[in-house]
UniProtKB/TrEMBL annotation:
Transmembrane segments: none annotated. This is Dihydroxy-acid dehydratase. Residues 369-563 form the Dihydroxy-acid/6-phosphogluconate dehydratase C-terminal domain. Its EC number is 4.2.1.9. Gene3D superfamilies: IlvD/EDD C-terminal domain-like (3.50.30.80). Belongs to the IlvD/Edd family. Residues 47-357 form the Dihydroxy-acid/6-phosphogluconate dehydratase N-terminal domain. The keyword Signal does not apply. Keywords: Iron, Iron-sulfur, Lyase, Metal-binding. GO terms for molecular function: dihydroxy-acid dehydratase activity; iron-sulfur cluster binding; metal ion binding. It comes from Bordetella petrii (strain ATCC BAA-461 / DSM 12804 / CCUG 43448 / CIP 107267 / Se-1111R). InterPro entries: Dihydro-acid_dehy_C (IPR042096), DiOHA_6PGluconate_deHydtase_CS (IPR020558), ILV_EDD_C (IPR056740), ILV_EDD_N (IPR000581), IlvD/EDD_N (IPR037237), Sugar_Degrad_Dehydratases (IPR052352).
Length: 583
């Protein structure tokens, strides 16, 4: 008997992913009956379905414009002949997430992935913005494999305090430091509190949210020019409409994330991360996203890129300006034009065009002061440097562009805090034995120890030193810091203390040497002594008792694997980036 070899019909729109009742005809009949209860016609239900992930939440002011964006995306979808269907997922805000937003990132990525899989959609628009939301969405979408496009809520506006322009959150930390040092009083810090966040939207400096917005555009998974428009502008709404229209075209061409998020795209994103002086968290998120697609990010390769990619964007915390200035200066298209010789121009973007084609069609350059030409960078190398040594065999990161040049070659005595509570208890104690040239060490704020890599790596200067005018010290931890923070701060020490990394065995008075020049972070203690300490105090990985806490502690990987869950990463590595040097 002849076998019919014709391919299975492509299932799309409302017929995708039917609920399992054992009778597909009935499943579709029932689905349509229910959605018709909302007043849809058969004509509407026959269109390509574009899901819209709505992360609006009253707990998330960074997404306060989500309702307007959803409306504009819907308009774009309908203009292009699609049917928009918005749905909620978890929304995570930095200041409203206990213990940390990073602890919840993987949960949000699972929610995003499973709801994209579970519900019928031909493409999906991901509306994110606040730090962990964009990586969570892109991780989830990469695993779900449905055509996906990112739309960020956009940056907040800047405020004004007594004539000085201020914005979250570099200025939050600066003013809080002044308050701790008793340079300003309680009344003034209260006034500042009213001005730091002048509108809805994400932090107004090159913190993690702005970094992830720029990286999404560099990856090609966002409309070209879509990263920088502030939240409350007409430009942002137009980007949203364009995103909806683009999503319909992506559905038609089945432009899935694996075709966009390639090794070349990740290498472009790493270049951009370095050139914007981006958040150190960006490398953890990129690693997690790439890991979903079987792409490994090699820290040594990142460091090589860093030596040849200068910081060109003059934004706080590395520079002077704010995101709204970056937008007025031309945003990502202007930056990518400067970086053009270093980029893979054949990388595909959501429009179906390559990055090179998008750049060819971009508006011309004009005179401005925020995005520097290659010949006049604000920092001669990339924003990040990768350190190694016996204290961090798996690597550590420093944001060299926001560090104090006088401390980047430094040796000092360790002043050790066993965990965040220990630090909170003792750091402001006037009897603490600490000097300005010491090295502050904070343990157990890594992926497992935090749990969830709290942004406590930006350790406060001990109050007695702050009062004496000390503004920066070398600080080392296995945690993160906010992308809005600055200082000579070594982060992501891997392996972390909570799983028995060498950091666990540092003691008060040990000598530590930091050399950014040599990319070294060294504990000046012999291997024998470290082995003796490890045998004396064996470390047991913490285990949760139940629920998500248990899943998290048992499954989270180290920072060099993106702190993703081990079971969410691709089963095999297809590619390692950055590749070998070609120029
Ligand atoms: Fe949401 Fe900064 S707190 S972006």
């Amino acid at each position: 008997m002849a076998v019919n070899k014709s391919p299975a019909p492509v299932v799309s729109g409302l017929s995708k992913g039917l609920t399992n009742y054992g009778d597909t005809g009935f499943s579709l009949f029932l689905r349509k009956a229910f959605i018709k209860g909302a007043g849809y016609t058969d004509d509407a239900l026959a269109r390509p379905v574009i899901g819209i992930v709505n992360t609006g939440s009253s707990y998330n002011p960074c997404h306060g414009n989500a309702p307007q964006l959803v409306e504009a995306v819907k308009r774009g979808v309908m203009l292009a002949g699609g049917l928009p269907v918005d749905f909620p997922t978890i929304s995570v805000h930095e200041s409203f997430s206990q213990p940390t937003s990073m602890y919840l990132r993987n949960l949000m990525s699972m929610d995003t992935e499973e709801m994209i899989r579970a519900q019928p959609m031909d493409a999906v628009v991901l509306i994110g913005g606040c730090d962990k939301t964009v990586p969570a969405q892109l991780m989830g979408a990469a695993s779900a494999g449905v055509p996906a496009i990112e739309l960020v809520t956009g940056a907040m506006l800047t405020g004004s305090h007594r004539g000085e322009r201020v914005g979250a959150c570099t200025d939050c930390r600066r003013y809080w430091g002044r308050y701790r040092a008793e340079e300003i009083d309680a009344a003034e810090i209260s006034d500042v509190n009213n001005q730091l966040v002048a509108s809805v939207g994400t932090c107004s400096v090159m913190g993690t949210a702005s970094t992830m917005a720029c990286l999404a555009e560099a990856l090609g998974i966002m409309v070209f020019g879509g990263a920088s428009a502030p939240a409350v502008t007409a430009d942002r709404i137009r980007v949203a409409e364009r995103t909806g229209t683009t999503a319909v075209a992506m559905a038609a061409s089945r432009l899935t994330p694996d075709r966009i998020l390639t090794g070349k795209a990740f290498e472009n994103a790493l270049r951009v991360l370095l050139a914007i002086g981006g958040s150190t968290n960006g490398i953890v998120h990129l690693t997690a996203m790439a890991g979903r697609l079987g792409i490994d990010i090699d820290l040594a390769g990142l460091d090589r890129l860093s030596r040849e990619t200068p910081v060109l964007v003059d934004l706080k915390p590395s520079g002077q300006h704010y995101m709204e200035d970056f937008h007025k200066a031309g945003g990502m298209p202007a930056l990518l034009r400067e970086l053009r010789p270093l980029l893979h121009l054949d990388a595909l973007t959501v429009s179906g065009r390559t990055l090179g084609q998008e750049l060819d069609a971009a508006p011309p350059a004009f005179a401005q002061e925020v995005i520097r030409p290659f010949s006049s960078p604000i920092y001669p190398a990339g924003g990040l440097a990768v350190l190694r040594g016996n204290l961090a065999p798996g690597g550590a990161i420093i944001k060299q562009s926001a560090a104090n040049p006088d401390l980047m070659e430094h040796e000092g005595r360790a002043v050790v805090f066993e965990d965040a509570e220990d630090m909170a208890r003792r750091i402001d104690d006037d009897t603490l034995d600490v000097r300005a040239d010491d090295v502050l060490v904070l343990k157990r704020i890594g992926p497992t120890g935090g749990p969830g890599m709290p942004e406590a790596g930006y350790m406060p200067i001990p109050r007695k030193l702050a009062r004496a005018g000390v503004k920066d010290m070398v600080r080392i931890s296995d945690g993160c810091m906010s992308g809005t923070a600055a200082g000579t701060i070594v982060l992501h020490v891997t392996p972390e203390a909570a799983v028995g990394g060498p950091l666990a065995h540092v003691r008060n008075g040990d000598r530590i040497r930091l050399s950014v020049q040599r990319r070294e972070i060294a504990l000046l203690v012999s291997d024998e002594e470290l082995a003796r300490r490890a045998a004396e105090h064996p470390i047991e990985r913490p285990q949760g008792e139940r629920g998500y806490h248990k899943l998290y502690l048992q499954s989270v990987t180290q920072a060099d694997q993106g702190a993703d869950f081990d079971f969410l990463r691709a089963s095999a590595t297809r590619e390692t980036v950055p590749g070998k040097p070609t120029r």
